[in-house]
Specification:
The protein is of the alpha/beta class. The strands form 3 sheets. It has a 5-stranded parallel β-sheet with strand order 4-3-5-6-7, sandwiched between helices. Strands 9-8-10-11-12 form a 5-stranded parallel β-sheet, sandwiched between helices. A two-stranded antiparallel ribbon has the order 1-2. Helix 5 links the parallel strand 6 and strand 7. 29% of the residues are buried.
Length: 314
């Protein structure tokens, strides 16, 4: 439930519980969502089309869901709910000259966890296949061990088709095809951005997107650290600040007010773009009153982020 609550909060929603002894419990999630103008089909990835993939997860729904996504991307997919079985299937596939090129393995599984499953599969298949570790938790504590075991890349639960596509493009070093409109004027090469975000996973995702657009990215885990970094920097070192609002120690509003009062007016006037799970008019007004130059709702819509950055840095 804590994971669900975090996701709902990030999306600016609300969750409540109604429970009655002897009858049961009802969880009600309310979200404000944008209507999709047209249905967008998942596009096959031509360079890996037809490859054999194995999903390993002790949750049946996850297995079936991810296997279905892989098939939509053009891969042959199978699944297993046990690490030991996955090791056996990896060996059999190799013997039959139909080896798996992609493994998506959950971290937390009974009997044999994802790290040990990866380690044993690597002994059989070698270095070439891509092994992607899946987890609903922060993998910081196991990242080093997992990479030593042979994990190629990490991906978070809940897993969406866009996330899966992005990671597969990354591990196979495939350049994503973009239309002319997306390609036009989306190059911020040489621009340095200070990303202020207390959630490590959000920082990593945002950093990856920003680097794709050419930004040099530096991170701060809260408003206080961001203020210290800016105050110590040379004027013009940072071009813009992407500031989360809800953070411990010093939130985004406090940090922005502190920055605007710096003695060095060039640093004090740096553009600051707010990021918040709350997208109501009063939140936009609060951001403006604090001295921010713009406001983006979470989860971040990448095209909107790009447009806001282009507008501010024009």
């Amino acid at each position: 439930m804590s994971i669900t609550k975090n996701i709902v909060d990030m999306m600016g929603g609300d969750i409540k519980v109604e429970s009655e002894v002897g009858k049961g419990t009802e969880f009600i999630v309310t979200l404000e969502l944008k209507l999709q103008k047209e249905h967008k089909e998942i596009q096959e990835i031509e360079k890996i089309k037809g490859m054999h993939a194995l999903v390993v997860d002790d949750d049946l729904d996850s297995c079936q869901s991810i296997a279905y996504m892989l098939r939509q991307l053009g891969l042959k997919s199978e699944w297993s709910m046990h690490g030991k079985e996955a090791v056996v299937r990896a060996k059999e596939a190799l013997q039959m000259d139909d080896e798996y090129k992609i493994y998506i393995i959950d971290w937390l599984m009974p009997e044999m966890n994802g790290v040990e499953t990866t380690r044993r599969i690597r002994k059989i298949v070698g270095k070439e296949p891509k092994i992607i570790m899946l987890s609903a938790y922060d993998w910081g504590e196991i990242e080093e061990e997992a990479k030593e075991a042979g994990v190629t890349e990490f991906i978070s639960k809940p897993l969406f088709p866009s996330d899966l596509t992005r990671v597969l493009l990354k591990v196979f070093e495939i350049e994503e095809q973009k239309n002319e409109e997306e390609q036009e004027n989306v190059d911020f090469s040489g621009k340095r951005i200070l990303l202020v975000e207390d959630n490590m996973m959000n920082r990593e995702i945002a950093t990856e997107y920003l680097q794709d657009f050419g930004f040099l990215v530096e991170n701060a885990e809260n408003g206080k650290v961001a203020c210290e970094m800016l105050e110590k920097s040379e004027p013009g070192y940072f071009d813009i600040v992407l500031m989360d609002i809800q953070m411990p120690i010093m939130n985004g509003y406090e940090a922005t007010r502190t920055i605007r009062n710096f003695k060095n007016k060039q640093i004090a006037n740096i553009p600051i773009l707010a990021m918040t799970a709350n997208a109501f008019e009063e939140d936009k007004k609060a951001a403006k009153d604090a001295g921010m130059n713009g406001h983006l709702a979470k989860p971040i819509d990448v095209p909107k982020l790009v447009e806001a950055l282009k507008e501010i840095l024009k």
